[in-house]
Amino acid sequence: MKPKTSDWRNLVQRLLKTELSKKGIKYQDLSDKLSAVGVDQSADNLRNKINKGILGADLLLQIVFVLNIKQIKYEDIEEILADMQ
Q1: Whose CA is closest to 42, among 29, 57, 55?
Q2: What's the pLDDT tens digit per position in 39-58?
Q3: Which residues of 8-31 are buried (b: 16+ CB within 10 A; e: fewer)?
Q4: Where are the alpha helices (DSSP H) in 3-73?
Q5: How far is CA 6 from the centre of its chain?
Q6: Residue 21 belongs to what domain range?
Q7: What's the CA gap between 2 and 57, in Å, rounded?
Q8: Could you give the C-alpha distances from 32 to 37, 41, 66, 79, in angstroms and in order?
Q9: What is the pTM of this model?
Q10: Confidence (pLDDT) at 3
Q11: Nearby residues of 27 by Cβ (< 8 Å), 6 or more positions away
Q12: Which among 62, 22, 13, 68 has a CA at the least distance from the CA of 41?
């Protein structure tokens, strides 16, 4: 079965929330980390975007950068998508 747009948004949400949880980072911490690299996003704005799974590619890459995410494994993506089916 082909994933729907909502599946991809859910995937983004799960991946980012998992990383935030693993690193013990709250939305205000994420906002502060982004601010340190010149990206202004309030904690509430980040929470809304991540909860909806809707954010631009630039913000996604900025979050990956400030969270120091080394890799996102293809197998993890497959597993999450399969879990949603």
Answers
A1: 29
A2: 999 999 999 999 999 999 99
A3: eebbbbbbbeebbeeeeeebeebb
A4: 5-23, 27-36, 43-52, 57-66
A5: 15
A6: 5-84
A7: 22
A8: 9, 9, 10, 31
A9: 0.90
A10: 82
A11: 20, 43, 44, 46, 47, 50
A12: 62
Total domains in the chain come to 1
Band the pLDDT of 84: cuts 50, 70, 90. Answer: confident
Per-residue model confidence (pLDDT) at position 2: 81
Which pLDDT score is estimated for 32? 99
Provide the CB-side half-sphere exposure for 48 (13 A, CA).
5
85/74 Cα distance (integer angstroms): 17
Query: How large is the average pLDDT for residues 14-30?
Result: 97
Residue 1 reports pLDDT greater than 70: no
Mean pLDDT of 8-34: 97
Q: What angle do CA 1, 14, 49 make, to 5 degrees?
A: 110
User: Which tokens is 69 given?
Assistant: 């995410």
Q: Are 19 and 67 in contact (CB under 8 A)?
A: yes
